Amino acid sequence: MFLVTLFLVFVTLFLIGRLVQLQVVEHNRWLAMASSIQERTIEVPPRRATIYDRNGIPLAFDVKATAIAIDSFNMTKPETLIAILGEELALSIATLEERVYRPSYFTWIERKVNLETARAINQRAREASAYGLIFIDTWKRCYPEGALASNVIGFVGIDGHGLEGVELAFDELLAGEPTQLHVVVGADGRTYHTETISAGEPGEELYLTLDVRLQFICEEAIDHGVTRFRANEGFIVLLDPNTGDVLAMAQDRRYDLNRFTESTPAQRRNLAVGFLFEPGSAFKALSGLAALDCGAVAVDDHFNGNDGIRIAGHTMHNAEHNSFGTVTFGQIIEDSINTGMIRVAQRLGEERLYRFLVDAGFGQKTGIALPGEEAGILRDVKDWSKLALAAISIGQSVAVTGIQLARGMCAVANGGLLLAPRIVQGVGETGMESKEPVVLRQVVSAVSCATMRGLLRRVIESGTGTLAEVEGFAVAGKTGTAQKALPGRGYVDGKYTSLFAGFLPVDEPSYLALVVLDEVKTTPVWGGYTAGQIFQEAVSRLVMVEHVPPVAIR
Question: Among 159, 164, 200, 432, whose CB has the most other CB atoms within 10 angstroms?
Answer without folding.
Answer: 164
